[in-house]
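Can anyone check this?
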Amino acid sequence: MTPIPRSQLATIQISVINQCTVLTDDEVSTVVGALQKQVTNDFRPAWGVDAELQFVPSTGQPAAGTWWLSILDNSDQANALGYHDLTPDGLPIGKVFAGTDLQIGASWSVTASHELLEMLADPNINLTVFVQDAETTGTLYAYEVCDACEADNLGYSIDDILVSDFVFPSWFESFRAQGSTQFDQQSAIQGPLQLLPGGYIGTFDVSAGSGWQQTTAEKRLQSMTHRGNVGSRRERRRTAREQWVKSMPHKEIMRRATDYRRRMDAIYKRAA
């Protein structure tokens, strides 16, 4: 694939903010370096979107006008601290629940890669592809670029950091023949709209009246209202835009973070 000259691309500025208690600033900063290489070297040639990532330590302040990728413990922390659907400037935000990943034995760096790339491909979480199967029926597919191949074992390494596989635009093009082109970064997918083991995609049957459902590789449907962390892309996709909430100013988030950690410390001491 011929790379697009960087001078022809609008470069998005993204602050990667460490606000979790389970990872050090050094651990997060190392992963940010690998994510930068993935965006510029792998994602940009396929999608024509580039970004400059700026690591923000736990005591730092993100630059005004940047998108946010927030590294958090879990969805409870995200809700408590004031990380909502948009940044205080009304710009896109992604959330990585590193504490939850570590609890279940998943790779938080894959999740960070996943959330970052999907934010770049569909920052407003409103893009879909429509596959019409009859005059008045059809299915909308969520424009999520990592869900189909999201499992950790399908990822790949950059500087010994595991990152997520991702699909190419051809994955959403139903006219493509099996094996006719490259459908994902790792060339594991052989056809359009194919889901690999562990993968899924949000679907919306326009005539069923059942809203967003999640289709898995095993072809099971699961209502998206029954899963998805607070503030996750899956939750926000099914939430009306007028109900989206801006995050609090970062100084207020920092103040709340201090209070949050005090409360958590007190809970741990009582438990001990």
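Reply from J.R.: I decoded it. The two ends are 56 Å apart (CA to CA).
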